[in-house]
Amino acid sequence: MTDTVDFLIIGGGVVGLTVALEIRKRHRRAVIRVLEKEDQVGAHASGRNSGVLHAGFYYTPDSLKAQLTRDGCAAWTEYHEEFRLPIRRCGKLVVTQQETELRGLRQLFERGQTNDVELEWISAEAAREIEPRVRTVESAIWSPSTASVDPGTLMTHLGERCEQELIQVCTGTAFVDRRAEAVVTTAGSVDPGYVINAAGLHADRVARSYGFGSRYRVVPFRGAYLYGNNSEQLQTHIYPVPDSRFAFLGVHFTVTPSGGVKIGPTAMPGLWREHYGGLGGFVAGDAVEVATEVGRLLVRGGQPFRRHALSEVRKLSRHHLVGLAGQLAEDIDPSDYTDWGRPGIRAQLVDRISGQMVDDFVLEGDNESMHILNAVSPAFTCALPFAAVVADRIESAP
Prior knowledge:
By secondary structure, the chain is an alpha+beta fold. The chain has helices at about 15-25, 45-50, 65-80, 100-115, 125-130, 150-165, 205-210, 285-300, 300-315, 320-325, 380-395, and strands at about 1-10, 30-35, 50-55, 85-90, 90-95, 120-125, 140-145, 145-150, 170, 175-180, 180-185, 190-195, 215-225, 225-230, 235-240, 250-255, 260-265, 270, 335-340, 345-350, 355, 360-365, 370-375. Helix 1 (about 15-25) packs across helix 11 and helix 8 (about 285-300) crosses helix 9 (about 300-315). The longest helix has 19 residues, at about 65-80.
């Protein structure tokens, strides 16, 4: 027997739930259902990410990320204060490790100005007034609006908000296939008026069942943090100048909402899409597909990508990872960083035609379905304004 809903959202992560809440704001009487294959919402990237609310100065001005990150950071900050959720408004220092990075730091600062992000160009002495242990050559960028939140707490709260708004959140229910106009799930068939694909690691597969995303594949990148156990903590996040050739921000210090400190993340390609550790989630076809796509990246990404891959292998060593972080701050002792946190997986979209990782958000759809193919970092920060963009795209779909 097939039941009917007005909007069916596949995926109960931060994007799926904020889109559901945005749809509810616009369609008060609609029947809205969220499918989440796990037993709780936010079980994957949304509940396992760094929790950093980014200010928006990393992203090229013509990108959706640039448009949404600044507003998303402000929106989540206000949201956490309104609902009294844990947040630490600790700011961020971006520092240089050698003089050759000063040019990159300046470019980052100028990009932030173009994106209308609140930033300060400060001296090394001023940086040490903010964080006495910081290391930097000559100058640093200070981002006062960067903050950190607890992803697990936020995801639980969003799930509760959805229930209050009479949005049906069906955990333990997975998308299986599309069959004519119906969606087949592990709990039966659903006849949706409109489908919104926010399936994260599996978004490309869901999209292909609707005829979208054929040029793309999701490649998983597994990341983990080392947590500190020293009572002498840092005052702010400390980040290096990122390598603009890659989508990752480099090893950095993150201050948690409780005041703890973690180092990371690693960014190793997963062996399959849900490769969190051991053989859990192993799917043979997944492993073959991921190996093929990673092989393409190694070949078409050239020597820079191969060097990057080798550097990520070295980060699996705790001492090496702490050593990299120690270039950003003084008196960092490896014995204070012994516990690996829960790994997370970045669902990185790869364009099979260009052979490159896709940096910006990607949406494809029509008057029957909308597919969020690439919602990588900082999608967590961008989620509230991004949900409005998704709803606008749905309303304007041909």
